Amino acid sequence: MIVRVFLGFCIAIMTFAAAEAQEAARNPWKYNVGGGLSFTQGNKDTSTYNASYNVTYSPGPRRTFKSDALLLRGKTNGELSHDRFGLNLREEVRIGEHMFVFGQNQYLRDRFKRIQYLVAPTAGLGLTAVATEATTLTFDAGAGGVWEKNPYVDVRASGALTFSQKLTQAISGSTTLTQSLSGLWKTEDMADAIYQAGIAVTLGINARVQFKIEALDTYNTKPTGTMIRKNDVSTVFAIVIKN
Known about the structure:
The structure is a single chain. The chain is mainly beta. The protein has a single domain (27-242), classed as Beta Barrel (Porin), CATH 2.40.160. It has one helix at 2-25, and strands at 29-41, 46-57, 63-76, 79-94, 99-110, 115-131, 135-149, 156-170, 175-186, 189-204, 209-220, 231-242. The protein has a twelve-stranded antiparallel β-barrel with strand order 1-2-3-4-5-6-7-8-9-10-11-12. It is globular, with a radius of gyration of 22 Å.
């Protein structure tokens, strides 16, 4: 009798542990938060601080929600010299092995490009060209609208077209290379566009802490002001904590 009770207890413990392991393995949430220093060349040459997050929620095999944000802010000689914040919200639904549809909303505020806010909700179609354990490569294109507010003028509204490409490549068990390219065109004037390109290397310090080096290039083809440079390049150094 005692042996049966003991065996039953062991089986119950093993079943509970297996269930816990299975639940941990299918945890739908993945996130990381980071912060550090960056150096910017463009409209202002300055040292800044940065803060960022990246969240992915996958409640099932077909649906994925993604959100990321980056804040760059700094002062030179006691005066604010860099102030930029970008936020993206995105929902993807897979419609095949390689195809997916998406809806997203992009937000941008850049004080020194005279963008008080830019909001661009769009939707479209994407392609997962490569999906292996080491490599992921995606492309997507969409359409929607864009609203931009600049100082001393009314909000400018237009249709919008978007394109983006992203590559994630595992170089080793602790090192990952990420490259991205995106464009936003206003249909009222296709020559009025914002391009963003980035490349980053993430080095694992331990299972939860990483060191990230990232170069970001933002190019505005028609900035609102003759004294504003079209191109800003930021180099970001950050410590990232992930789940």
